[in-house]
Design brief:
Number of helices: 15
Mean pLDDT: 84
Strand order of the largest sheet: 1-2
Shape: flat
CATH superfamily of the largest domain: MetI-like
Strand content: under 5%
CATH architecture of the largest domain: Orthogonal Bundle
Oligomer: single chain
Distance between the termini: 58 Å
CATH class of the largest domain: Mainly Alpha
Number of strands: 2
Order of helices and strands: HHHHHHEEHHHHHHHHH
Length: 462
């Protein structure tokens, strides 16, 4: 049985265990005068039975699914004649792919060597045996766990404490997984970055003003060294993000002020959903809009006033990106402004302040930590955007502050570097990890700075 089919089966068994334990807890409580004589409510006895049924079975299922493929592949490879054993990991992957195709019926056994066809038969038999044994073991563990919990339904057992302790441990494991996943991502990117700096000096990477990672395949070719100066990429990233924020922050903040303080309930219920629809539009649609409408308009407008503008410009990408992130600023700022206590508004108005003065002197300062958070979220969204930049700003790594010229960003280059037939351990491919780590560090520093600002104003207005 497949893992995907075992999951709902385990959940069904957990529901059955819940119902049986619930009925048993009420049956045990009946001779004692009711459920008030139990150490916990029947719900907790039932929940404990469901947890005992599901958690051990799911753990076994996860471990089995994690190691099943590797073990079976090792057995299949070991079954091959010794003179056909793979000499490298790549060759082993090719042989296993061929065996899997034969086992799945995608490849006719007559067109492969006899030992490959035999290994495919072994693979199919091992997968069937593993699936059957896995299903039996998981169901058996689930039934045994449910039976144990069912027999432990007794008036003197505090099932509530057991359930809460188990849930607390589950929550801790989930939090630890999130932290470990983040640490694993950073660690893996860091290792590849170290490999990149073995090939390219870190000073050239951080302070170089030219970015051309298209290294040649042979040493005697032109441009075999490549250029890995990151300054043009960060300049383009900051330029486009700054233009986007110059559009999104005023528009989003003013929209939030209007919706929270001045708009009627009918107007608010109409405008806010329409405004938030901007966040649901795919970025590729924004990219088309920027490339086909905004960029030609900017180019024609610049020509009218006597300026020269590229058909792909930072201004076009920044303007459309600003429109895209308006809902992030507007929606979050609206929620934060609405959360300011009404008593602060009433006190300000009672002292003679106008509604405008109340907004500027009381509400905005009180909501400033949340507003800064919304702006930070919008900035992170702008820095991480790729599709709009590819379609509207281009791929040219130009070191310029002119918004009418074509530029590129760090995220666009990361996506570009990892596409193609370049070998994975080349400087070109490894530079994507260095860019990712540097972008992570810059974003982390921005978050730390924003948290300090938020903490400062929060202490002032709490």
């Amino acid at each position: 049985m497949q893992t995907a089919n075992l999951l709902p089966l385990v959940l069904v068994l957990a529901v059955v265990a819940y119902g049986l334990a619930y009925m048993r807890s009420r049956a045990v409580a009946a001779p004692l005068g009711g459920i008030r004589n139990l150490k916990a409510l029947p719900f907790y006895y039932a929940a404990r039975a469901a947890l005992w049924c599901a958690i051990p079975a799911l753990i076994v299922l996860a471990v089995w699914a994690g190691f099943e493929g590797k073990v079976i592949q090792g057995i299949v490879i070991a079954s091959l004649p010794q003179d056909t054993w793979p000499e490298s990991a790549g060759q082993a992957s090719l042989i296993l792919s061929q065996i899997s195709n034969v086992a799945a019926g995608s490849l006719d056994p007559e067109f492969v060597p006899e030992h490959i066809a035999g290994a495919a038969s072994l693979l199919e038999a091992m997968q069937d045996k593993s699936g059957n044994f896995k299903a039996i073991l998981v169901v058996l563990i689930a039934v045994l766990g449910a039976t144990f919990a069912w027999t432990r339904v007794a008036p003197h057992i505090n099932a509530r404490k057991n359930v809460e302790t188990t849930l607390r441990r589950i929550f801790f494991v989930c939090a630890a997984l999130a932290v470990l996943t983040t640490a694993g991502i950073v660690f893996s990117v860091f290792l590849e970055t170290v490999r990149f700096f073995d090939r390219v000096p870190i000073t050239e990477f951080l302070f170089g003003t030219s970015w051309s990672p298209q290294t040649a395949l042979r040493v005697d070719q032109v441009g075999s060294e490549g250029a890995f100066g990151v300054i043009p990429l960060f300049t383009g990233t900051l330029l486009i993000s700054a233009i986007a924020l110059l559009v999104a922050v005023p528009v989003g903040l003013m929209s939030a002020i209007y919706l929270s303080e001045y708009a009627s309930k009918r107007m608010r219920s109409t405008i806010k959903p329409v405004l938030e629809m901007l966040a649901g539009i795919p970025t590729v649609v924004y990219g088309f809009f920027a490339a086909l409408t905004v960029a030609p308009f900017i180019r024609d407008l610049a020509a009218i006033v006597g300026l020269e503008a590229s058909s792909q410009s930072a201004l076009a990408a920044g303007l459309v990106m600003g429109i895209m992130i308006v809902p992030f600023v507007s929606s979050l700022s609206d929620d934060v402004i609405s959360a300011v206590p009404q008593t602060m508004r009433d006190a300000s108005l009672a002292l003679g302040a106008t509604q405008s003065e109340t907004m500027k002197k009381v509400i905005i300062p009180a909501a400033l930590p949340g507003i800064i958070g919304s702006i930070l979220l919008a900035a992170s969204r702008a820095i991480g955007e790729t599709m709009i930049v590819v379609m509207a700003a281009g791929l040219a790594a130009n070191l310029t502050a002119n918004p009418l010229e074509s530029v590129t960003t760090v995220t666009v280059q990361i996506a570009t570097l990892l596409v193609g037939d370049q070998e994975f351990d080349s400087a070109k491919t490894l530079s994507a990890f260095a860019l990712g780590l540097l972008l992570f560090i810059v974003t982390l520093l921005l978050n730390v700075l924003a948290l300090k600002i938020v903490r400062k104003y929060r202490e002032q207005y709490d």
